[in-house]
Structures are given as structure tokens and as C-alpha cells.
User: Which sequence fits this backbone?
């Protein structure tokens, strides 16, 4: 009789401890995954696939040097190595990456275009007026539909599209001096070297 009481007492203690053990195991797993890897290197299911072909209208009233800035034309991806930067005037990291975008715009081997995400035309124009326009084309995406087609998690994000019109690389987050040198320029050089 004493062994039955001891056995049922042990089972009760295990049942009480089981949720705590499961919680601690899950917490350890979450902590491990939280510290693992670079969050800006989130894989994209679109790598290697053709870039979305949808055309985007220009941002209303956006001009550079007195000429209207064209919208985004998906057909222009073929034959060019293109950087597609998804940005918005309300995005704080987008303000921070402007110097790197200006640097990239100087590289005549690539075409730099923008997708203005869920923004008001007035705000987009003020942003460009304040920082300058590094883009050869800027497509307006007021409802975010194009961003969904590109697989955008949030702004800013930058895509490298190869001459074949396929997405070669995706950078999540702002372009910084560090990731420009370490990952973005190597991805651009690789796309430029591809036939």
C-alpha cells in the first residue's frame, strides 16, 4: 500500500512539474533563436525568381531637374542590374540610409529605382526635396499591393535584380556603411558578373 501511495505521489509531482519543464525548454529555444543570425538576412522565397512585372505609376508631382520622375516599369529590369529600394517618408531608417543610396546612385553600372510604400505624394516629394533624389524612377505603391508582390516585410528593403530580370538578393532593413560593403556590394558585383 505504501508503494502505491509513493507511486501516485511521484506521478502527481511529475504532472505538476511537466508544464514548468516544457516552458523552460521553449524559453531556451526562443532565446537561442533570438541570438542566432543576422535579422537583415531573412531569406526570401523570391530569390532566383523573376521580379514582379507590375508597372507602378510615378509619384504625383515628383520632379528632378525640372523633369517628371517616371514610375516603375517592370520591363526595364531585363538587361540591367537594378537595385529596387522600398522606402517611405514616415520610415525613420529610410532617412538614415540616404547617404548610402546617394553613393550607389553614382555607380553607373547599376540602375537605382524606388518603390514609395504607403505614402502620401506630398510627403514623398518633401522627403526627396529634403534629401535629394538618388532614383532614376520612383513607383508609387499607396495601398501596399506591389510590396506584397515583392515579399516586403517592412521598409526599408532593397532588392538586387539581375540582368535576367530575376531577384538575386534581398536586404531587409536600412543600407548601412557596414552592410553596403559586406553584403550588398558583393551581391551587386555578383549580379554584374553574371551573363
Assistant:
Amino acid at each position: 500500500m505504501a508503494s502505491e501511495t509513493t507511486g501516485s505521489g511521484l506521478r502527481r509531482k511529475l504532472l505538476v512539474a511537466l508544464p514548468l519543464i516544457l516552458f523552460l525548454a521553449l524559453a531556451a529555444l526562443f532565446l537561442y533563436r533570438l541570438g542566432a543570425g543576422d535579422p537583415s538576412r531573412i531569406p526570401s522565397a523570391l530569390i532566383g525568381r523573376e521580379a514582379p512585372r507590375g508597372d507602378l505609376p510615378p509619384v504625383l508631382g515628383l520632379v528632378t531637374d525640372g523633369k517628371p520622375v517616371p514610375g516603375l516599369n517592370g520591363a526595364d529590369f531585363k538587361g540591367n542590374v537594378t537595385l529596387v529600394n522600398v522606402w517611405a517618408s514616415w520610415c525613420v531608417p529610410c532617412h538614415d540610409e540616404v547617404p548610402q543610396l546617394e553613393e550607389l546612385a553614382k555607380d553607373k553600372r547599376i540602375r537605382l529605382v524606388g518603390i514609395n510604400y504607403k505614402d502620401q505624394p506630398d510627403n514623398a516629394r518633401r522627403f526627396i526635396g529634403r534629401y535629394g533624389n538618388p532614383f532614376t524612377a520612383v513607383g508609387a505603391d499607396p495601398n501596399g499591393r506591389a510590396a506584397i508582390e515583392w515579399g516586403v516585410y517592412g521598409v526599408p528593403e532593397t532588392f538586387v535584380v539581375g540582368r535576367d530580370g530575376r531577384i538575386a538578393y534581398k536586404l531587409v532593413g536600412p543600407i548601412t556603411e557596414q552592410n553596403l560593403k559586406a553584403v550588398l556590394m558583393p551581391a551587386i558585383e555578383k549580379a554584374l558578373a553574371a551573363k
Summary: The mean pLDDT is 89. The radius of gyration is 24 Å. Helices lie at 2-35, 92-96, 98-105, 121-131, 145-150, 177-193.
